[in-house]
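Reposting from the mailing list since nobody answered there.

I have sequence plus structure tokens for a pair of proteins and want to know whether others read the tokens the same way I do. The first protein:
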Amino acid sequence: MTKIMTDTWAKPIFDENGMTQWFWRVTHRENFSLGNHVEIGSFTIIDAMNSVNIEDNVKIGWNCTIMSNSTIDGKKGKIILKEGCSIGANSVIFPNVTVGENAIIGANSLVNCNIPKNEVWVGTPAKKIR
């Protein structure tokens, strides 16, 4: 069961550069989908060039990088953050990754593979610990 984080949640307001009032940013907003009751920490950047879908009740810590396109190695693909998952501060999510429902990614992790639901992964690269 996923619990709702707050009754006072509000959708973000984006400026012309994709920056929100909470100082997180989305590029290629036309390919970005955001569920309800999502919390995203300041200084997070989301590159939705190849689609990013964040479902309801997701938590993303400060200063994360979520990239559906990598110009360094040419990787690209949709990112899906399933309902109730949590991404720790300073983590990086690579292209073509799905983080499962209620999964937890520890702080400072690099996620380069799909994460099954209800599992805990940490590290660089992220590895399952529970």
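The second protein, same order (residues first, tokens after):
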Amino acid sequence: MVNILQDNSQHTKEATVPDLPHALSPEDSLIAVMLVTSISDEQVETAELLRIDASVNHLPVFATYDMDRAAKVSRVVFDLMTEEDGLDALFGLVRENLPDYLWETAYALACDVAAADGTLHGPELRILEEIRHELNIDRLRAAAIEYGARARHMILHED
């Protein structure tokens, strides 16, 4: 397993985007959306980081992703979140660098991260609403994506 917050120099794949300060590949953009969802409540939960890690390590959209970039993406996200209009800037980068056919994928990944710890709090609900708005996810599709995330993250209850 690869920790997305650390450089992983043993992976030698060629980066798909030059190392410019805020240049994002499509995969970087997906990771950025997951990270901003995780940090939205100012508490980065272990379950959320594990969900991000599992997504990056197992989903086909990340098959050729250069894992060395993940730590750089996390720094960009954290840096932008310290700026006054950082969230707007991040969404601008995501819209610019993520093909629109992957916008629903970004929203689905964000929903999975938000649901990973078993509860959704106000800030997570607000960031999901913002992602829906910024990525033009219509309400019906969003509801289906949200229901799928809920179903994937159900737990057994003892009677």
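Reply #1 (J.P.):
I read it the same way you do. Residues 26-39 form the longest helix (14 residues).
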